[in-house]
Design brief:
The complex is a heterodimer of chains A (about 280) and B (about 250). By secondary structure, chain A is an alpha/beta fold. Chain A is built from eleven helices and seven strands. Chain A is globular, with a radius of gyration of 18 Å. Chain B has twelve helices and seven strands. Chain B has helices spanning about 15-30, 45-50, 65-70, 90-100, 100-105, 125-130, 160-165, 180-190, 195-200, 210-230, 235-240, 240-245, and strands spanning about 5-10, 35-40, 55, 80-85, 110-120, 140-145, 170-175. The chains are: A alpha/beta (about 280), B alpha/beta (about 250).
Chain lengths: ~280, ~250
């Protein structure tokens, strides 16, 4: 799959619609909903981009080639060398807003993953609310799920609570990244944190050896290849900076995260309203 | 209920007068208030293009069309009539209406009358207001500042501005907020009411294929305008409901 067409800002266009002979498009698939995973955190350095990548690989492995949107126009951290389409969107441009939201709400078997940069956090959710995204997407068989990564600060939980209120009809998964350390005393006492005490869609990003995390972030190693190909001592040369043990650790970390993602996406799907085909919206 | 005549006018072209008329038609529709509209942009008819089902094109300078509008006010089942006055003809039209005794009827309590005067950002607009004010004594006068194209009204000196309104405390200021350019353009091209665009309908009533982002912009913008018309009590004033007196 070539992705170079989407890797530069000057060539932003809606990605091609899946052609009718797409191997994913079986009668079963057409009736199934596809996911639009929106990954966001209030601040930077929360592991958001790594998590977005893991989600994309989860969808890839589950047979739904994902379409990934990177909203960090300046850094473009989700690189085009991943084994799925990555589109960079500059949310300050109306044209890019249309490309992003119209594409993720379109009827298609592809999964969509949006990495919402903390620089455009407010802008993204404002446009999402203004365009009534949740019901528009749902009417086309696309189920939106917000993965909100809370950091250690009280304001992150407060913002998450506001987000949950604002998009009350959309599943919100609270993601806690163990790597970020223990919660501050002030955070534990905050109203925002307490509002999530009985929240039922939660998942944990388990601790990952920082050296492994860095190696994964800095390289273009395919996470899905790591899972789908047997672990072997002989392929050291092709796996970049990672040693055999590091790859083993990464693999077991991924399996844990995939299982959790599977659990929360199924839960989100089961509680979503039944699909009612709305022909007028196609 | 008394018949209501709501006039939308501007002395200058390009201030978005017809856009304001379109928002009023959508607003009235949302409030379940049937309305008939007269488009005085004879013979072209911009308003008619967007709202063909309720709009007739008229030439306000001819007696026959004046009769079509005014003589039917009390007989028409539809109580609200909106007249989109051709740009530059506002003062002249008010003169003509005075001549045919329209304001006598208004003053006698036969009809209610309101004017939405869409003004530009230049000082010349203040002169326009001065020209129109004598007609508006005791009437519902809405001064509409249209920001849809991002106009800034910085040229208006507040002191001078206030001075113009001395003795006419019924003047109400209405603000139309800015709408995203691409969204506005797309509705222009589609040639449909804003409300249809939001509902993703086409001219023929079929499902449209408009961007949900652009529809979102229009939806939010219309919501703000609805709040603004509610705030100034547009309908209450025209219906002489008690709230208007406050």
């Amino acid at each position: 799959m070539t992705v170079s067409a989407f890797s530069t800002a000057s060539t932003i266009e809606p990605p091609p619609r899946p052609d009718p002979a797409d191997p994913f498009e079986t009668p079963n698939d057409a009736a199934r909903r596809s996911f639009a995973a929106i990954v966001a955190s209030l601040h930077g350095r929360t592991g958001k981009t790594l998590f977005a990548r893991v989600l994309a690989d989860y969808f890839l492995l589950s047979g739904h080639r994902p379409l990934v949107f990177d909203t960090d126009f300046t850094e473009q951290t989700l690189r085009a060398s991943f084994p799925y389409d990555t589109v960079v969107a500059d949310l300050s441009e109306t044209r890019d807003q249309m490309m992003l939201f119209d594409t993720i709400a379109a009827r298609s078997p592809e999964a969509r993953v949006v990495d919402v940069s903390h620089y455009v956090f407010r802008k993204f959710f404002k446009v999402m609310q203004d365009c009534d995204f949740v019901s528009e997407a749902r009417a086309r068989g696309v189920e939106p799920v917000i993965f909100y990564i809370a950091d250690r600060n009280a304001d992150a939980y407060e913002e998450g609570r506001l987000l949950r209120e604002r998009f009350a009809d959309c599943a919100l998964v609270l993601v806690e990244n163990v790597f970020l350390g223990a919660l501050k005393e002030r955070t534990l006492r905050s109203a925002g944190y307490r509002a999530f005490e009985s929240h039922d869609l939660c998942m944990m990003l388990p601790l990952l050896d920082p050296a492994v995390a860095d190696a994964v972030q800095d390289s273009d190693i395919s996470l899905s290849d790591m899972i789908s190909q047997p672990l072997s001592r002989s392929d050291d040369a092709s796996s970049g900076a990672l040693t055999f043990e590091q790859r083993a650790e990464m693999r077991s970390w991924l399996m844990k995260v995939f299982r959790d993602i599977h659990r929360v996406t199924r839960a989100a799907e089961s509680r979503a309203p039944q699909i009612v085909p709305v022909d007028s919206l196609i | 209920m008394k018949p209501v005549v709501l006039m939308v006018g501007a002395d200058k072209g390009g201030v978005g007068k017809t856009t304001v008329s379109r928002t009023v038609l959508d607003y009235l529709k949302a409030k379940n208030t049937p309305v008939r509209a007269f488009d005085a942009e004879h013979p072209r008819g911009t308003l008619q293009r967007f709202h063909p089902d309720v709009t007739e094109i008229v030439d306000v300078t001819t007696a026959s069309d004046q009769m079509r509008m005014i003589d039917t006010l009390s007989t028409s089942e539809i109580k609200v009539s909106l007249i989109d006055i051709r740009a530059g003809l506002l003062a002249e039209t008010l003169d003509t209406l005075t001549e045919v005794g329209f304001f006598d009827l208004v003053n006698a309590g036969e009809f209610n009358f309101g004017l939405m005067h869409v003004v530009g950002s230049s000082v010349a607009s203040l002169d326009e207001i001065a020209e129109v004010l004598p007609f508006m004594k005791g009437q519902h006068y809405f001064i509409v500042k249209n920001f849809i194209n991002d106009t800034s009204f910085f040229e208006w000196n507040p002191a001078i501005y206030k001075n113009y309104f001395r003795g006419n405390n019924t003047a109400v200021e209405v603000t139309i907020p800015k709408l995203n350019e691409m969204a506005y353009e797309q509705v222009e091209i589609s040639g449909i009411p804003f409300s249809d665009f939001v509902a993703n309908r086409q001219t023929n009533g079929q499902a449209g294929n408009n961007s949900l982002v652009l529809r979102g912009y229009v939806r939010t913008w219309m919501r703000n305008i609805t709040d603004e018309y509610d705030r100034v009590g547009l309908l209450d004033r025209l219906y002489d409901r008690t709230a208007a007196a406050a």
